[in-house]
Amino acid sequence: MTNKSNSKLIWTLPYVVAAFGLLFAFIGLSEFYNVKIAGQESAYPFGPINENQWYYQNASIYANYNLTSGVVFLTVSLFLVWATIKKSKTLVIWGIGLIILFFIAELVSSKVQ
After folding, report:
1. Which helix or strand (DSSP H or E) is residue 82 part of?
2. Whole-prediction pTM value?
């Protein structure tokens, strides 16, 4: 591999991470839509059933949690795409780090009951 192809390979990583972040943004925002806007609350097991995570306490908490999560992932993913287009290595590292940090926060949050 030449130096130019290594450079292209390195600059594709932020787009992959941004796509991952956008996937989580889509999931969070679609869950918000389903519960808060479409009113499909009966499809979800809200309350202390089966030892659910804390955000399944009621429909309002669940919707707000998913809205916040979706907006955070969307914002950071768009920031990462912008930083990659600008070819700012420092901002790209920040963007990748933030998406990884928020993903870890999602994992931790899903274990809290």
Report:
1. helix 59-86
2. 0.86
For residue range 16-43, list pLDDT tens digits in order.
999 999 999 999 999 999 999 988 888 8
Contacts of 92 (CB under 8 A, 6+ apart): 14, 80, 83, 84
At residue 99, φ and ψ (nearest 5 deg) are: -65, -40
Total length of the chain: 113
Alpha-carbon dihedral sign for residues 74, 76, 79, 85:
negative
Q: Give the burial string for 89-101 (b: 16+ CB within 10 Å, else e).
A: eebbeebbebbee
**Nearest-angstrom CA–CA distance, 101 and 113:** 20
Residue from 70, 93, 90 nearest 17 by CA: 93
- Please report, as a single letter, which amino acid is at residue 41: E
Residue 89 CA: distances (Å) to CA of 2, 13, 76, 86, 100: 20, 12, 15, 9, 16
Tokens of 75: 């914002």
Residue type, 69: S
State how far Cα 33 lies from the chain centre. Answer: 16
